[in-house]
Amino acid sequence: MQFINNLLLDMELDPRLVEYLSIIIKIFLIGLICIAANFISKRIVVRIITRIVTNSKIKWGPIILEREVFRKLSHIVPAIIIYSFASTFPTYQSTIEKLAIAYMIIVGLVFIRSLLNVCNDIYQTFEISKVKPIKGYIQVVNIIIMTLGVILIISNLMGKSPLILLSGIGALSAVLMLVFKDSLLGLVAGIQLTSNDMVRVGDWIEMPKYGADGDVIDISLNTVKVQNGDKTITMIPSYALISDSFRNWRGMQGSGGRRIKRSLYIDTSSITFCTEEMIGKFIKVHYLSDYIIQKEKEITEYNTKNEIDRNNPVNGRALTNIGVFRGYISNYLKNHEGINQDMPLIVRQLAPGEYGLPLEIYAFTNDVQWAVHESVQSDIFDHLFAVAPEFGLRIFQNPSGADIRNVVEESENKALIGERNY
């Protein structure tokens, strides 16, 4: 730089012009050096490092390259060069050094943030990441580092000790608590969610208050991201999973069975005692033959033992079509290949109501997949709706428009026939 000054002075130019020209030339040369250094660091050094990482087949190499960690670090080279040449401009040396240091701190913060993201990406390659995610903790570390970085930048530009700013922040703790309220709540919630194993990435959760009903795809410091069944995304505040109730279907997914809990509504007017003809018909049904023989034996022994007169069907015990139908459903489910036989299987009557007598099926499929579960459930009820009339039972259904029209037409036909006969 001194050589440039001497060269311009030897040209016998005006000293003031020499001063301006020397500053312009120095800035231009420093700029060329920065551009050259930036080109070498990005185009040569970073490419060499990328090739080494790629050829070494490091397991986490692609993650490091995807986050562009080395490329972000290369931005510090021009800042170092500018800081080194700051003494060339004695008048502005202090300002240039401060700006260069501030830029180096910013580059360092970006580099550290990229490293933390790489750590999170690497951690997610392990199965334990679904049980104990660390993204929330990394975000907390990011906030702390960024806060300290901003303090260092401000203290550097002001030329004051960072401790002075830190002491001032202590006085603003109430304001900071208000600003970072969600982050603090999210941090506490994240610790509780992880330590108590309340929710994991991949869990199917249901939270109607927030319109969430789907799989958890991400757990961060402030939010839990849920992908619903219609592929929409719902964002739930992390602390809401602690303060509000939600349903986690993980237990069902890991149990090996998915519940069927649905009722057939039987028209109570179709319920009756079984006649000899009906019993003869039922005993030929594959799933009922053993059941009918056993029940008939029990009923006969009971009635004989208690000397009950069976001339009146009200006396003693007797088979009913609803009871036989219930036994048929139970045996049918016990022999169904889609039902998990190691889990509860119940066919029960609920309290009768305005829609008839509910005959509830409580069982579990042996596959937890939604499509398989619905297919098995539909097959079962298709069959039961079809066979119910074979037991003399009617499935209850509110009258439709077609039913009312048929009744009206039948009444009109009867009236017309009556008039003709008259």
From TrEMBL:
One of its GO terms (biological process) is cellular response to osmotic stress. It is found in: Cell inner membrane. Residues 182-250 form the Mechanosensitive ion channel MscS domain. Its main location: membrane. Pfam families: MS_channel_2nd, MS_channel_3rd. GO terms for cellular component: plasma membrane. InterPro entries: LSM_dom_sf, MS_channel_C, MscS_beta-dom_sf, MscS_channel_2nd, YbdG. One of its GO terms (molecular function) is mechanosensitive monoatomic ion channel activity. Residues 332-394 form the Mechanosensitive ion channel MscS C-terminal domain. SUPFAM superfamilies: Sm-like ribonucleoproteins. It comes from the Bacteria. It is a multi-pass membrane protein. Keywords: Cell inner membrane, Cell membrane, Membrane, Stress response, Transmembrane, Transmembrane helix. The chain crosses the membrane at residues 20-41, 73-93, 99-116, 137-157, 163-180. The keyword Membrane applies. Belongs to the MscS (TC 1.A.23) family. This is Mechanosensing system component YbdG. It comes from Peribacillus asahii.
